[in-house]
């Protein structure tokens, strides 16, 4: 289990991370979200001993991480770093051997991993001859082929199209199912909702949200209504507790100031019988992110 206890880090007068505490258990995925500069990468660098915290500590299975624990780590930095003139297989083997794997074991697994992440190219291709997306997959394989127990992924979805993002999600879930503790950052809230068992949101280095995606969404109340009915936009706007109404194709999307307004709207919409759609939901994680980040700008 990874334990982060009261981590604080400043650079001059700027507090990058303030009193940060959380845990990630084996077989669990934690999403770390926040705007650029919120403290995500600084957190990762303190976990990895690249930076020393001003206060607090990082524990793995009850002890501080040392060089002896290096082989159980898998790390994908935000800044990609591959040797462009090396062959794919040599690149993967090089990093895997640094983590304690034998060359013959690495070479026997390369094809399996390239198939798993659907790398477009041959193992004998030079890295520079692959597309950026496939280079990213190669670096990910290099970080994961030794099946680490602790995985840290800094913006792993950057630059990936939806198909390749889904392939990466499957790979992360495979590692989770193998028992790895995984922590990653992303600006794509769709990825975060699909993957995270729980999440932390940082703003100016401070934790401003924590919990499961569902618990966080529910804490904001069911303030979104999706409705397709005979009621007009003007009629919907006149209900007490309705903040905004937006037409979206055949349906209207309402934002409520009071979730209780949904009951009255439903009763009016169904007064003459069946309607094709009525759904009252909490805001999406993306909307919540904008709400919390927006407070920062204000």
Automatic annotation (TrEMBL):
Signal peptide: none
SMART domains: AAA (SM00382)
Molecular function in Gene Ontology: ATP binding; ATP hydrolysis activity
Entry keyword set: ATP-binding, Nucleotide-binding, Transport
Domain of life: Bacteria
Keyword Protease (UniProt): no
InterPro entries per record: AAA+_ATPase, ABC_transporter-like_ATP-bd, ABC_transporter-like_CS, ABC_transporter_ATP-binding, DrrA1/2-like_C, P-loop_NTPase
Domain ABC transporter: 2-229
Family membership noted in the UniProt record: Belongs to the ABC transporter superfamily.
PANTHER family found in the cross-reference section: ABC TRANSPORTER ATP-BINDING PROTEIN, ABC TRANSPORTER ATP-BINDING PROTEIN NATA
Name of the featured protein: ABC transporter domain-containing protein
Organism: Lacticaseibacillus sharpeae JCM 1186 = DSM 20505
Lineage of the organism: Bacteria, Bacillati, Bacillota, Bacilli, Lactobacillales
């Amino acid at each position: 289990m990874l334990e982060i206890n009261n981590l604080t880090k400043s650079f001059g007068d700027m507090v990058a991370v303030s009193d940060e505490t959380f845990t990630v258990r084996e077989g669990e995925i934690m999403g770390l979200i926040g705007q650029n500069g919120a403290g995500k990468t600084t957190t990762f660098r303190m976990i990895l001993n690249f930076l020393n915290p001003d206060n607090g500590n990082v524990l793995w299975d009850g002890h501080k991480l040392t060089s002896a624990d290096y082989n159980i780590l898998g790390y994908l930095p935000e800044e990609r770093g591959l040797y462009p003139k090396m062959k794919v297989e040599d690149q993967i083997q090089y990093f895997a051997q640094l983590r304690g794997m034998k060359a013959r074991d690495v070479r026997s697994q390369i094809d399996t991993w390239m198939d798993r992440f659907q790398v477009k190219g041959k193992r004998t291709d030079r890295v520079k001859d692959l597309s950026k997306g496939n280079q990213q997959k190669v670096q990910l394989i290099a970080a994961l082929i030794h099946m680490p127990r602790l995985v840290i992924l800094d913006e792993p979805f950057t630059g990936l199209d939806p198909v390749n993002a889904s392939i990466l999600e499957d790979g992360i879930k495979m590692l989770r199912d193998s028992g790895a503790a995984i922590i990653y950052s992303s600006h794509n809230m769709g990825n975060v909702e699909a993957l995270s068992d729980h999440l932390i949101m940082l703003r100016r280095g401070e934790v401003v949200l924590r919990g499961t995606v569902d618990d966080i969404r529910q804490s904001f109340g069911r303030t979104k209504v999706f409705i397709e009915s005979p009621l007009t936009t003007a009629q919907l706007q006149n209900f007490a507790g309705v903040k905004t109404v937006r037409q979206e194709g055949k349906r209207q999307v309402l934002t409520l100031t009071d979730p209780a307004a949904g009951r009255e709207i439903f009763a009016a919409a169904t007064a003459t019988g069946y309607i094709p759609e009525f759904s009252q939901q909490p805001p999406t994680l993306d909307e919540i992110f904008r709400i919390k980040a927006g407070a920062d700008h204000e």
